[in-house]
Specification:
two-stranded parallel ribbon; alpha+beta; single chain
Length: 64
Amino acid sequence: MAAELRDARLLTVSGYGNTTLLDPSTCAADHKTACLVRGVLPPRGTVCWQDVPPLAETAPAASR
């Protein structure tokens, strides 16, 4: 198994929560798509950030 994973990459998302499902990251989504569709791995040490910080307002101020 180690031989099969020798070219694997760890894609880190710096943020809160356990997954990007409820706390999305466009950066992570783009890297996942590139890997699955084109077979392109992210550079070693890639760190993505969540699109919206935790507890941020999701509605524009004018709609309150």
